[in-house]
Amino acid sequence: MSHHTETLVIGAGPAGLTAAYLLSKQGRSVTVLERDPEKVGGISRTVSHNGYLFDIGGHRFFSKSKAVVDLWDEILPHDFIERPRLSRIYYQGKYYAYPLKAFEALRNLGLIRSTACVLSYLYARAKPIENPRSFHDWVRNQFGERLFSIFFKTYTEKVWGMSCDAISADWAAQRIKGLDLGAAIRDALKRSLGLKPKQRAGEPVIKTLIESFRYPRRGPGMMWEAAAARTMAQGGRVLLDRGVDGLSYDAGTGLWTASVLRGDGSRETHTARHLVSSAPVRELVDSIRPRPLSTFNARALQYRDFLTVALIAKSEKTFPDNWIYIHDPSVKVGRVQNFLSWSPEMVPEAGHTCLGLEYFCFEGDGLWTSSDDDLVALAKAEIGKIGLIDPADVVDACVVRQPKAYPVYDEAYADNVATVRRELERDFPTLHLVGRNGMHKYNNQDHAMMTAMLTVENILAGTRRHDVWRVNEDAEYTEAGVSGAQAALGSERLVPRKVA
C-alpha cells in the first residue's frame, strides 16, 4: 500500500508533533510515522499502570521562549497546574537542598570537609586547566576538585556509564552553564536566612534556581496526545505502529520514499517531498539507501538508555520533593521521582504514594536485561536503604524501559555529528533534522519544539531561512536572541507558498 504526503515526519515526540501540528494548521499535507504501537509523546509520554500515572524522567514545562509557551497554551489551554519546585541531593545518608543552602551544606559536610571544599575551589579558580576538554576538567575549573568529587562525579558516572574524563566538556557547558559557585553561595546564604532572592530586571533566569513550574495535571503525555488529536482534526495523519526501516531520495523528482514495517509484519510505502526526522541519527542514516559515506560516523554515535521502576506504596510517609538526585555510590539508582509532588492526579488513591526509581543503563547490559521481578526487588531494597519508604509498604510495581533516552557526548561526538550533518545537508536538501535524538543534542522539550517550529518556517518559505542548529539549550534562536525567535514565529510569520 502506498501513500503520498507533502511532508513526512518520523517520530511522534515533541519535535515531530510540533512540526505536524503547525504544518497541518497551515493547511499543509503531513503524515507522522511513530514506531510505538500505542502512545505518542516519545520520552515525553505519560505511562499508566492500574490508574497510576508516571513520567519517563519528569518533564517541567518551563521555557524562556514566549513562542514555545504560547504554543503550549494553544495546544493545551485548560489543563496546566502550577507546581512548587523542590529537588534535593542524597549523599552519604544526608539530604542537601538543591540549590544549596549554605549552612545546611556546611553542617552536613562538617567543618573540615567544607573548609577543604572552599580551599579547593579557590585553588581551581586561581590555577584553572587551560582549554578544558573533559567534563572533569570543566567542573573542576568551575567548582574545584573536592566539590566535583562530592556533587558531580558519582551521579554523572551513573547517568552516563563512563568516566567523567571521557565525557566532553560540551556536556557540562550545556547543562551546568549559568551557575557559578559565587552566585550559588550568595543565593544559598539568602535562602538560609529566609530571604528570597530578587530577580533584577533584564537579569537572565538560571534554570536550576527556578522555584516553580507548570505541569499538565495528568502528566506531559496530555500535551502530546492533544497535539496529535489537533493535528488529525486539521487534516494531518498520525500513524502508530510504523517503524521506518528504509529511505531513499530521488534527486530527479525531489521525492522521498519511506519503507515502513508494522508490528504484524505488513509493509507500507510512503512518499513525500519533505522529510522531517526526529529519529536517532544513527538509525536514520542506517536506513538511507544508497548508504551515505558518513554511515561510519553515525554508527559511532552512542546513546544512554534508561529504565524506571515505579513503586506504588500504601504509605502516609510523604516528602515534598519532585525528585531527588542519588549521589550515593552504594546504590545503583540515580534519581527518584515523587509523582504525587508532580501532580496529585498522578496518584488516584488516598493514602498511597508512587515513586519512580530511575536507573541509567546501556541497552543489553545487566540492568536492561534483568527480569522485571529482579528490578522491582532491587528497587525495593534500594528505596529501603535510602529510607524514603518502607519496602514492606509496596503494594504494586511497574517497569518501563526507554531506549536511547540520552545522546552521549563523548570526545568524538561533535566531529561525528558535524560530518553527518555536512553530508546530509549537501545531498538531501529536503531532509530536516529536529529534536533531541534527531540532532544528537541533549536538549529539553522546549528546545526540541523550537527546532521544529523553525523547520516549519523553512518548509513554508521553501528556503533554509533558519539554521535550526543555532537554537541553544534554552530554546533561544542564537542568531538574534529570544526576540529573533519570537519575530520568526510570531508577528513576522512568513506567507506560505508551495515548495517547488
Walk me through the topology.
Elements lengths: L1 E9 L3 H12 L4 E4 L12 E4 L2 E4 L10 H10 L4 E5 L2 E5 L2 E5 L3 H8 L1 H16 L8 H9 L1 H16 L8 H7 L5 H12 L19 E5 L4 H13 L3 E3 L3 E8 L4 E7 L5 E11 L3 H7 L7 H5 L3 E12 L8 E4 L8 E4 H4 L9 E10 L4 H4 L2 H15 L7 E14 L5 H15 L3 E3 L2 H4 L5 H17 L19 H9 L11
Parallel strand pairs: 1-2, 1-12, 2-9, 6-14, 12-18
Antiparallel strand pairs: 3-4, 5-8, 6-7, 10-11, 11-12, 13-16, 13-17, 14-15, 15-16
Helix pairs in contact: 1-9, 1-17, 3-4, 4-5, 5-6, 5-7
Whole-number mean pLDDT = 88
Give the strand content. 15-25%
Quick one: CATH class of the largest domain?
A: Alpha Beta
Number of self-contained structural domains: 3
For the record, the CATH architecture of the largest domain stands as: 3-Layer(bba) Sandwich
Biggest pleated sheet = 7 strands, mixed
The tally of strands reads 18
